[in-house]
Automatic annotation (TrEMBL):
Domain of life, source organism: Bacteria
SUPFAM superfamilies named among the record's database cross-references: FAD/NAD(P)-binding domain, HI0933 insert domain-like
Taxonomic source organism: Parerythrobacter lacustris
Keywords annotated in UniProt: FAD, Flavoprotein
Cofactor: FAD
NCBIfam families hit by this protein: aminoacetone oxidase family FAD-binding enzyme
All residue ranges annotated as the RsdA/BaiN/AoA(So)-like Rossmann fold-like domain in the record: 6-389
Residues in RsdA/BaiN/AoA(So)-like insert domain copies: 189-336
InterPro entries, A to Z: BaiN-like, BaiN-like_dom_sf, FAD/NAD-bd_sf, RsdA/BaiN/AoA(So)-like_dom, RsdA/BaiN/AoA(So)_Rossmann
Protein name (Swiss-Prot/TrEMBL): NAD(P)/FAD-dependent oxidoreductase
């Protein structure tokens, strides 16, 4: 064995680096073992390269988990404002894009640099190109084998994330390790992921590239954001959001004209009977989408010539258009993984496992999944902070 540490953090992503920095600054001797040749790769590609590093509104209601209360304590003890204060202390310029989403003005590299500086302040040892393959717990210590070398520590933090985007080196190693220590894992599934269309809905694939502001809903979750048609199905923020709630066989309902007053089509017929149905739709929606919807509704011609009953039915469908996705684009395209190490196995105060004292799990590896918009990083920071205070 080379050196013994107080804590070994497995994974040098957002959660792992932040946890290591905080524990190091509290005087702990901390080692980070990272499989990739450099740390923080997902941070670098996040937010289109600008890293949506938090969301000012982050609270437990913005997260999916088998236990919706689990994230409350950690999120309350390390808030978006706390992270923002750190970002500002490092002189990183930022802006709010929309809906409380905070991004770097410059590049996501600034967030990685900030985490590295914080780790350096805590004398954290970071070793890259070290893939952890085995862990043993012997005589009160965790012995970790990574790329042919053994490392030892009294505490071990699982921060290896989830399997989304395997081509970036993402792994399901957290779950292997959890099962080895007898911890339950809530079945991992792709989340914040485009949905694919088949059957009758396949016709909508012709609209590839068209987007519109809609209300999208699945399983009682509803989001008002843009939906985008793709050559495989549906994407865009509204769809990514509902994808986390969607399960195979569920419909996704889209309101293409949210916020319209009741009976707006009949009203339009009365006020402007010589307006073409298609023209009316084109005023509110991108032309290709308007035309496709009009065709699928089988309505054409002047509003004045269309029966009220048909217009009422069209109205109903435009507000509740039902798609039956046949799948998702999978972990290859999923921004995050829902499910993971069961929160029932962890203390919500410290992220320590109840069965194996000294063993912790944080970040995406845990069954806490945020909405799109900076919530996942906020969970990474908050769970890392909770853990670091206990190491
Ligand atoms: P993360 O995946 O970041 O880190 C895990 C680390 O463990 C990786 O570095 C990995 O290489 C390493 N590892 C895995 N197995 C290992 C092993 N066996 N041995 C050693 N190391 C191992 N979120 C958000 O809030 N705002 C945003 O803007 C975005 N944008 C975004 C874009 C894209 C394209 C993706 C894919 C994801 C996002 N996210 C996001 C989600 C966000 O990136 C994600 O939630 C966090 O990175 C999770 O942080 P973790 O540290 O838990 O895992």
């Amino acid at each position: 064995m080379t050196t013994t540490f107080d804590a070994i953090v497995l994974g040098g992503g957002a959660a792992g680096l932040f946890c290591a920095a905080q524990a190091g600054q509290r005087g702990k001797r901390v080692l980070v073992l990272e499989k990739a040749e450099k740390v923080g790769k997902k941070i670098l590609i996040s937010g289109g390269g600008r890293c949506n590093f938090t969301n000012l509104g982050a609270g437990s209601a913005n997260y999916l988990s088998a236990n919706p209360h689990f994230a409350k304590s950690a999120l309350a003890r390390y808030t978006p404002r706390d992270f923002l204060a750190l970002v500002e202390a490092h002189g990183i310029a930022w802006h709010e894009k929309t809906l409380g989403q905070l991004f770097c003005d410059g590049s996501a590299q600034q967030v990685v640099d900030m985490l590295m500086t914080e780790c350096a302040k805590g004398d954290v040892t970071i070793l890259t190109s070290r893939e952890v393959s085995e862990v043993e717990h012997r005589e009160g210590a965790f012995i970790v084998a990574a790329s042919g070398t053994l490392y030892g520590a009294h505490s071990l933090v699982i921060a290896t994330g989830g399997p989304s985007i395997p081509k970036m080196g993402a792994t399901g190693y957290a779950y292997d390790l959890a099962r080895q220590f007898g911890l339950k894992v809530v079945e991992p599934r792709p989340a914040l992921v485009p949905l694919t269309l088949g059957g009758e809905d396949v016709l909508f694939r012709d609209l590839s590239g068209v987007s519109a502001e809609v209300d999208a809903s699945a399983n009682k979750a509803i989001f008002h954001e843009a939906a985008l048609f793709t050559h495989r199905g549906l994407s865009g923020p509204a769809i990514l959001q509902v994808s986390s709630y969607w399960r195979h066989g569920d419909p996704v309902t889209i309101d293409f004209l949210p916020g319209r007053p009741r009976d707006w089509l009949l009203e339009a017929k009365r006020c402007a009977p010589r307006t073409q149905f298609r023209t009316l739709l084109r005023e509110a929606l991108p032309q290709r989408l308007a035309d496709t919807l009009a065709e699928r509704l089988g309505l054409d011609g002047d509003l004045g010539n269309l029966p009220d009953k048909a217009l009422r039915a069209a109205q109903e469908r435009l507000h509740r258009w039902t798609f039956l996705p046949n799948g998702t684009e999978g972990f290859a395209k999923a921004e995050v993984t829902a499910g993971g190490i069961s929160t029932a196995e962890l203390s919500s105060q410290t992220m320590e496992t109840k069965k194996s004292p000294g063993l912790y799990a944080i970040g995406e590896a845990v069954d806490v999944t945020g909405w799109l918009g900076g919530y996942n990083f906020q969970w990474a920071w908050a769970s890392a902070h909770a853990c670091a205070q206990a190491l």
